[in-house]
Amino acid sequence: MEVYNKAVQVGSLKLEIAISDRSNTILYQSPEEHEASLACPYFINLTARDENDKRIWQTPVMDDHGEIRYYSSVYEAIEDAKSKLGDAGDEIEYNLPGSSKELQILLIEDIVEDMELMCMTLRKAGMKFNIKQVDTREEFVQALSEYKADIILSDHAIPQFNSLEALSLARKVNAKVPFIIVSGGVSETMAVNCIQQGASDYVLKSDLYRLPLAIQKALHAADITSATREELLLKVEELSETNNQLEHMLYGVAHNLRSPLNSVLGLLNLARHEGESLSKNMSHYFQMMEDSIRKLDTSVNDLLKYAKNAKKEVSIEKIDFKKVIQEGLEQMRFMKGFDRIQPKVEINQSSLFYSDAYRVSSILHNLISNAIKYMDYSKADSFIKVAIEVTKQKVDIEFTDNGIGINKTYLSKVFTMFYRATSQNDGTGLGLYLVNDTVQKMGGTISIESQEGEGTSFHITLPNHYSTALS
């Protein structure tokens, strides 16, 4: 069974390194081979190929009598490779698991003789290592924080402590470090349980010849998983989130696009059947159709903003907050209720502010639009208040309105895609999602406070890229 395989390029040579476990092939071994497998229970195959992929050297080699010479350790094979390949042989040593440095082994063992036997076994296999031995739970916990172990070896049962408890403690501190149980007696059920709990392997003390191979297998697995586990988990998480958003978006898009269109079709059918009274009601119907089309346009526009925010790289430039807010108000002047809103803007700026102009505009414009959509028509003095405080490090934006407000029950959901916290059907459910998504993209923070019937306040903090822009 192959436990390690790697190919490396050294100059014009391609080196192939493979290690296989031959301790499991006892039925197919001669007495001489079985004796050799007890001394070195792994089969080492090193191959060197030239630029034409022609094999120029390979182990194992034949001795003077034409018999295959098995190496007693990985390091015996390395020395042979060095003598034949020079610098390329050094590269083989560097790329073998655990061979490029001294292993730092943390050992849980209360019998000194057993520890010495393990050390003898590892030295015989040519392994370089330092070992720290502990025999109590307290010592182990302390060693986990103070001793940087490459691998942990643990007896299964010592007084008032066992390997499963040690494994649990180790995983809380370092989930990646290999953990091998070395015990005088482990049942099959216990061995399976240990592996399920996260142990890399288990070795019986009566079969310590397996320990060097078990360590190499565990280190090799750790080399692979440490480089890929976090990346894979991150990719899975990102893909899952993307899929959830896409599924949600498909439903929301279908709903938001089809509803206005159905309204337009329905109004046209009404107009078609009005007959003689068509001219009297035409103006009203046209206004309703215009409102429905504007909703459709808003939905499409919000989707375009979402797509642009997701793909567009952050671009740093100087921001004029007064101009951004004025442009936002100008864009919203045709919205229903705009003429009833009194904007109040306060800007306290002790430094120039550098950030992504498109995204800053998107945040403020969405908040202005949201405040107008959900204004409280029962109030005579509807307002939008924007307070901005700029320093060299950041900008704090306090955006407040005295609109209809949001019920506290729904506050935790207002940044969710397509979520509406009110029965008013004026919005797409994308506005606040886009605001939050944009703030996160820029490395900022956002919080919301609201009281139904009183109004809503957003507090946004964004980093100032002043130093970066001027460097």
Structure commentary:
- This protein has helices at 31-39, 74-85, 87-95, 112-124, 137-146, 163-173, 188-196, 211-274, 278-311, 321-331, 357-373, 431-441, 466-470; strands at residues 2-10, 13-21, 42-49, 55-58, 61-62, 68-69, 103-108, 129-134, 151-154, 157-158, 161-162, 179-183, 201-204, 317-318, 342-349, 354-355, 383-390, 394-401, 445-451, 455-463.
- Helix 8 runs antiparallel to helix 9 and helix 9 runs parallel beside helix 12 (431-441).
- The protein folds into three domains: 2-95, no CATH class; 103-227, Response regulator (Rossmann fold, 3-Layer(aba) Sandwich); 312-471, Histidine kinase-like ATPase, C-terminal domain (Heat Shock Protein 90, 2-Layer Sandwich).
- With 471 residues, the protein is an alpha/beta fold.
- The protein is elongated, with a radius of gyration of 35 Å.
- The model is unreliable at 23-31 and 33-41 (pLDDT under 50).
- Strand 3 and strand 4 (55-58) form a beta hairpin.
- The protein is 46% helix and 23% strand.
- The chain has a five-stranded parallel beta sheet with strand order 8-7-9-12-13, with helices on both faces.
Tell me briefly what this model is.
The protein has 471 residues and is of the alpha/beta class. It contains 13 helices and 20 strands.
